[in-house]
Amino acid sequence: MTLKTLPPEPIIDPDNTKIHRWPDLGLTLIHDFISPSEEATMVAAFHARDPDLNPKRRVSQHYGYHFDYTTFGASETEYSPIPDYITAFLPRLPLQDCIPDQFTVQYYPPGTGIPPHVDTHSMFEEPLYSLSFGSAVPMTFRLAGPNDARKMRLPRRSAMQSEGEGAAPPPPSSVSSQTGGDETVHPSWDLMLPPRSLLLMMGPSRYGYTHAIRPRKNDVVDGVAVPRKGRYSITMRKVRRGEQIKCDCPYPGVCDARIREEMALARAQACPKGQDENDKHTGESAKS
Ligand SMILES: O=C(O)CCC(=O)C(=O)O
Ligand SMILES: [Fe+2]
């Protein structure tokens, strides 16, 4: 069942009308964050590195600490130097005390998208950025519900096949009681991401909402079907390590840290005598 609603109205910054905020959601969209010439440089750099693209597949390039598709966190070892076209805009990011060090540049050929997902909570700091360029696309937001919680607890799936690349961690086999029974599906709404805009997700939009890009060739804008062209984005996150890998957000259903706790508890209950041994492994939580 898909329930759609209109996007919530933003509050426009009176001092800079390019900044739109949804304070209740922790969401900010900054229009014209990069210039057309910066955009052209980024498009050229992307295609110079990957000249032969499959027109049916989303393609990712990683800079800084690589995104790790097995832990859904960041690799400890794989690192690629951050290109100048990224370092150039870092001093303009709105949160200068939390500069990202994990960058995923993605190209979405027309007709491709990214399934609804919640980026991993515990392994990255709260601010989650997406810089858009190329074609405008709508990003679909929906408050996560029991179905999302249940999916995150299904036996292991492939990150690429089922979720966004920032999506949740390897789930436990047990299904939490909080997913039982209630089939509530919250309405979704679309936020149009114009080229050269920067989206910042914090709070509820970061931790409690799924985001997705529908795999469509056309988008309906003001009642008119507009063909999509290629769309690019740079997802930016700051990696957490060691003791910093934790989360106490108010959305336990879709929180990887809570899922790991559930797993550890389920293991301990299933095998009380082996508890010490298991704790040794789950202590390393995110990586196991
Ligand atoms: O392409 C985007 O704007 C978002 C990508 C995304 O959600 C992700 O990489 O987790
Ligand atoms: Fe994401």
Automatic annotation (TrEMBL):
GO BP: demethylation
Stretches the record annotates as Disordered: 157-188, 268-288
Protein's UniProt name: Fe2OG dioxygenase domain-containing protein
Superkingdom, taxonomy of origin: Eukaryota
Amino acid composition bias (Basic and acidic residues), ranges on this chain: 274-288
GO molecular function, one term: oxidoreductase activity
Classification of source organism: Eukaryota, Fungi, Dikarya, Ascomycota, Pezizomycotina
Record domain Fe2OG dioxygenase: where: 99-240
